[in-house]
Amino acid sequence: MPDRRSIVQPTSPARITGKEHAMHGTSLAGRTAVVSGSGRGIGRAIADALADAGATAVILARHADQVDDAVNTIRARGGKAVACVADLRDPAAVEAAWTRIHGEAGDVDILVNNAGINAKRPFVPLPVPPGATVGQPGSGPASVGMTDAEWDAIFDTHVRASLHLVRLFGPGMLARGWGRVINIGSSAVGRAPNLSGPYKVAKGALMHYTAALAKEWAPHGVTVNAISPGHFRTDMSKALHDSPEGQAWLRERIPMGHAGDIRELGALATFLAGERASFITGQMIGVDGGETL
After folding, report:
1. How far apart are CA 76 and CA 72, in angstroms?
2. Which residue among 17, 72, 222, 273 is buried most deeply as judged by most CB within 10 Å?
3. Separation CA 99–CA 160 (nearest Å)
4. Residue among 248, 261, 247 at smallest CA distance from 289
């Protein structure tokens, strides 16, 4: 029997086809889904999964090359995708994106607020030797504190951008009496990661925002839930996942002994976006291998 402690990444789950979604009642055919920050990482995996289930996936992100690659990949598999490039920290750019999305894809039924950034710095410089790190492998030097610009960028991306998108796409969902909002949180809210304090605070705000919005919109047929991922290898976290020190750190922290596969997050988002999740709202669903137990 293999040593589970030596496994950092499990075997990737098989992709579910549109035909299989139809057979199991999880089809999103005819729906349009906007996924922010979907040019790469978790957002892209979620957009891929929603498109596989039949939805038209709107790839909304800052970098045109990533957006185009994501759209082309979905279309090459026979899925439907629309490209939209915008900096979500700019309200004017978000409004322009809404105009373009509405013109090309019509009414939006599903909104996934995924865009996020991080800056692994302490709130104030810590009294440690220059260049010393604190916390998980790959963190920045603990002797350099968080700047106002970094703090604002984290909150603008995670919280304010989500609010802007909800204000633009939410009224249509409410008017039609059907909609799904899925916010991507973090298991960091349930723990205290070193040098990620502002990220944890922003994700915590997003969790409370999820509950408040769910309560307001529940009578109108729109559900609002959050997925809280643990450790998944993405461009933002590859420094941790690709080093021997990082792998050992993950094995020690995660009871299941390995990081997750981002396609598992896509499968959960697809379920929450569908008809079978119509009675689930205001929930924060952790996907972290037991790390926050």
Report:
1. 6
2. 273
3. 19
4. 261
Instruction: Provide the whole-model pTM.
Output: 0.87
CA gap 60, 183 in Å, rounded: 15
218-251 pLDDT, tens digit per residue, is 999 999 999 999 888 777 666 677 777 777 878 8
- Contact in structure between 122 and 145 (CB atoms under 8 Å): yes
Q: Quick check: is 199 catalytic? A: yes
What is the distance between the alpha carbons of residues 250 and 8, in angstroms, rounded to a whole number? 8
Q: Are 73 and 142 in contact (CB under 8 A)?
A: no
Q: Summarize the chain as % helix, strand, coil (round to 5).
A: 45, 15, 40
> Out of 199, 209, 232, 249, which one is annotated catalytic?
199
Q: What pLDDT is stored for residue 187 in this prediction?
A: 83
Cβ(291)–Cβ(187) under 8 Å?
yes
Backbone angles phi, psi at 232, to 5 degrees: -135, 140
Q: Are 261 and 9 in contact (CB under 8 A)?
A: yes
SS3 115: coil
Tokens in use for 282? Answer: 């205001």
User: For 258-284, what is the mean pLDDT?
Assistant: 94
Confidence at 196, pLDDT banded by 50, 70, 90: confident
Specify the pLDDT at position 250. 81
Nearest-angstrom CA–CA distance, 53 and 79: 9
33: Cβ contacts below 8 Å, ≥ 6 apart: 47, 50, 55, 56, 57, 58, 108, 109, 110, 111, 112, 273
Residue listed under structure tokens 């009871």: 255
Q: Which helix (H) or strand (E) holds 258?
A: none
Regarding the domain delimited by 24-287, which CATH topology (the fold level of the hierarchy) does it fall under? Rossmann fold (3.40.50)
